[in-house]
Structures are given as structure tokens and as C-alpha cells.
Write a structure and sequence with these properties.
alpha+beta, 3-stranded antiparallel β-sheet, about 15% strand
């Protein structure tokens, strides 16, 4: 008797991917330079305790990253920090795996950056 395999069966494998603060900073630079400028009305860097404690780290302050983001006519102010970026990365990996892989492989562009920011701010893509 010959065994056959159901082609509709699949396995989901969860993996852990480490993305450095420097890498995220590079992607955010792309977002602020053009990936998100069609919906981000105003962007403010918030100085955190880590910024003041470790000034020699320059732009790569790890968990000190924090932005206040104003979007178009929306009266709500959104905060982008390491917590929301982590949540956004998970949404991006689940809903936009090709763009997530581009980010990991350093093959990202302004569109990839846009997707990361929207996933981080809103938990989904709203614009574009």
C-alpha cells in the first residue's frame, strides 16, 4: 500500500529574529526621510532618561528611542518607542512577511519603513 501525503497540510514554525537598535534606527531614518512623509504631519524626538544618562551613544540609544508622531488631521498623538516598535515588528512579520524579511536582510526601502511605522503606530496598515 502506497502512502500519500495530503498537500493541504502545513506546519507553522516560529523563529526568533534579533534586530539591533542600529538596524531599526536605519529603517526609521528611511521612514522619516520619505517613507512616511505622506501621512506624518509632525514628528518630535522625546528625550528620555537614557538619552541624558548615556549621551556618548549618539543616535543609537537602544531603549531610549522615543518619538511623538502627529498624523494628518487626526487629533490623537501617537508614541513610537521600543515597545510599540516590537509590537509593530510582530505585526509586520505576521501580515507582511516579505517586507519583514527585506528588513532583516537589509534589503528594505522607504515602503518597508512605512509598513514598519504604520504597524507600530496603528497595529495595521491604514495609509498607502
Amino acid at each position: 500500500m502506497e502512502a500519500t501525503m495530503d498537500k493541504n497540510l502545513s506546519h507553522t514554525v516560529k523563529t526568533v529574529t534579533e534586530i539591533s537598535a542600529q538596524r531599526l534606527d536605519e529603517v526609521l531614518d528611511s521612514a522619516w526621510a520619505g517613507g512616511c512623509n505622506y501621512f506624518v504631519e509632525r514628528l518630535e524626538r522625546i528625550t528620555t532618561t537614557l538619552d541624558r544618562a548615556l549621551p556618548w551613544l549618539g543616535d543609537h540609544k537602544g531603549s531610549g528611542l522615543c518619538y511623538r508622531v502627529m498624523v494628518g488631521d487626526d487629533p490623537e498623538t501617537y508614541q513610537l518607542d521600543w515597545k510599540t516598535l516590537g509590537e509593530g515588528l510582530n505585526v509586520m512579520a505576521r501580515d507582511f512577511p516579505k517586507h519583514f524579511q527585506d528588513l532583516v536582510d537589509e534589503n528594505d526601502d522607504a515602503n518597508t519603513a512605512d509598513i514598519l511605522v504604520q504597524c507600530s503606530l496603528f497595529g495595521k496598515m491604514i495609509y498607502g
